Amino acid sequence: MYAIVETGGKQYRVEAGSTIQVQSLAGDVGTQIELNQVRLLQGDTGLMIGQPLIEGAKVTAEIVRQGRTRSITVFKKKRRKNYRRTRGHRQGFTKLLIKTIATA
């Protein structure tokens, strides 16, 4: 059984027992969260496609880690104007362990 869920403006294919890395979600390590935006569900009963979401379906996950990705360099320059700006950025992420996938 697998599902496609949406969080942080992106869609992820999840199965029970798998881990995914998504954009930062509020919560401490070890807390349970529910992902209610289920777009597609493949199970024993067949394929269910939401229009745009499946009513009553939810995915339960546990927060395994809160962290930040590697640093990237953001560099701006305008030629012949002596304008240069350098900045770094580290995007926050949340690592989730998928526990269960439930239908309505």
Q: Tell me the total number of β-strands.
A: 10
Strand arrangement in the largest pleated sheet: 2-1-5-6
Beta-strand content bin: over 45%
Rg, rounded, reads 19 Å
Say what oligomer this is: single chain
How far apart are the termini?
Answer: 15 Å
Structural class: mainly beta
Overall tally of structural domains: 1
Average pLDDT figure:
96
Shape: elongated
Order of helices and strands: EEEEEEEEEE
* SS element count, helices: 0
Main sheet specs: 4 strands, antiparallel
**Amount of helix:** under 10%
Uncertain regions: pLDDT < 50 for 5+ in a row? none
Question: Which secondary structure elements does this structure contain, and how are they paired or packed?
Answer:
Layout: E1 2-7, E2 10-15, E3 19-23, E4 32-35, E5 38-43, E6 46-49, E7 58-68, E8 72-78, E9 83-89, E10 92-102
Antiparallel strand pairs: 1-2, 1-5, 3-10, 4-7, 5-6, 7-10, 8-9
Task: Tell me what the structure shows.
This protein is mainly β and 104 residues long. It has one domain. Helices cover 0% and strands 64% of the residues. The strands form three sheets. It has a four-stranded antiparallel sheet with strand order 2-1-5-6, with no helix packed on it. A four-stranded antiparallel sheet has the order 3-10-7-4, with no helix packed on it. Strands 8-9 form a two-stranded antiparallel ribbon. A hairpin with a 4-residue loop joins strand 8 (72-78) and strand 9. The chain is elongated.
